[in-house]
Write a sequence for this structure.
């Protein structure tokens, strides 16, 4: 038979022809820090995931580094929230950045830049009385937050609010303060998704009124994602991110094919919750973790933010020793 593809599926041959690989170095682990805590607490909506104090976050970053994971992405929960999110300018995230860089220098620190965890109303920016985001004061705040993270020693800032012009505002802000080596990972194609629900309970950032559809993307649109990504690249994004991941593999694929720049995918809290609960009730086995992460890489992502990072890293290591 001229063509019999099963010849390539034999043990020892299959690994030679394997097209995609998933390795520990591809994974980024989210890390939540909460200014209100004395002790870490488990996040009920994200079983197995904790909100940390600065001290336990440093310990956690150490464990993450020991597993061979290259990076963490930080999210903060402040003590105080107000109309314009001023507590984003100094507090637990800046503290955590400097402590992790000091005690676990090998781990790359990414910090999410958004106001929704810091505003009393939960919107991603400064809003008027109708709940509409006001671009210029919001961009000014995002620029200042990014600079404060850079001063604390962050490696990459990750603006996640989908505010028009945010990458330009942050790039010029960083450069004017001498932080031209700090990279920007922009949440360039972020959809207005129901899959963020567990995260919003995790950081207590649900909107008090209205929703995020004025700035996050309509799940029906893919051409628009290409336009969004193109704009962010032209404004200076070093890495572009697509979010969520599994329901948007086509978008990841198109972004990679179109631009060929580094692409990150955020496999969000709802994707984690879905698999976690199906594994807990016995309807799925743990092998779906690897399969779903691999599918995100196959679509074209270079790196994946995932709540399975530690578990996947431990599994990948075991596999290497078994071989
Ligand atoms: C906004 C932000 C969100 C997530 C990461 N950054 C939530 C949102 O837009 O409501 C979601 C992450 C997840 O669901 O895992 N700062």
């Amino acid at each position: 038979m001229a063509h019999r593809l099963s010849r390539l599926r034999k043990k020892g041959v299959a690994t030679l022809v394997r097209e995609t690989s998933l390795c520990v170095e591809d994974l980024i682990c989210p890390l939540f820090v909460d200014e209100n805590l004395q002790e870490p607490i488990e996040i009920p909506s994200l079983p197995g995931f904790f909100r940390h104090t600065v001290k336990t976050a440093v310990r956690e970053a150490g464990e993450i580094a020991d597993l061979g994971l290259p990076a963490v992405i930080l999210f903060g929960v402040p003590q105080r929230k107000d109309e314009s999110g001023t507590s984003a300018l100094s507090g637990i995230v800046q503290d955590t950045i400097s402590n992790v860089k000091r005690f676990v220098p090998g781990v790359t620190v990414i910090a999410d830049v958004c106001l929704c965890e810091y505003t009393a109303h939960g919107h991603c920016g400064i809003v008027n009385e109708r709940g509409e985001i006001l671009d210029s004061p919001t961009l000014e705040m995002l620029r200042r937050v990014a600079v404060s993270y850079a001063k604390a020693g962050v490696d990459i800032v990750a603006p996640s609010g989908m505010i028009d012009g945010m990458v330009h505002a942050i790039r010029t802000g960083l450069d004017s303060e001498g932080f031209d080596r700090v990279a920007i990972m922009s949440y360039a194609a972020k959809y207005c998704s129901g899959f963020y629900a567990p995260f919003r309970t995790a950081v207590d950032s649900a909107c008090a009124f209205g929703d995020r559809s004025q700035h996050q993307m309509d799940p029906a649109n893919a051409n628009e994602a290409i336009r969004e990504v193109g704009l962010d690249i032209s404004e200076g994004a070093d890495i572009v991110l697509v979010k969520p991941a599994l329901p948007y593999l086509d978008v990841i694929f198109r972004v990679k094919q179109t631009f060929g720049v580094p692409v990150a995918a955020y496999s969000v809290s709802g994707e984690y919750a879905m698999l976690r609960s199906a594994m807990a009730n016995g309807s799925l086995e743990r092998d779906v973790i690897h399969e779903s992460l691999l599918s995100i890489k196959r679509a074209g992502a270079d790196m994946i933010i995932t709540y399975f990072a530690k578990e996947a890293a431990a599994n990948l290591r075991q596999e290497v020793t078994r071989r």
Remarks:
- The pocket of PBG is lined by residues 112, 114, 116, 160, 196, 199-200, 212, 268-269 (CB under 6 Å).
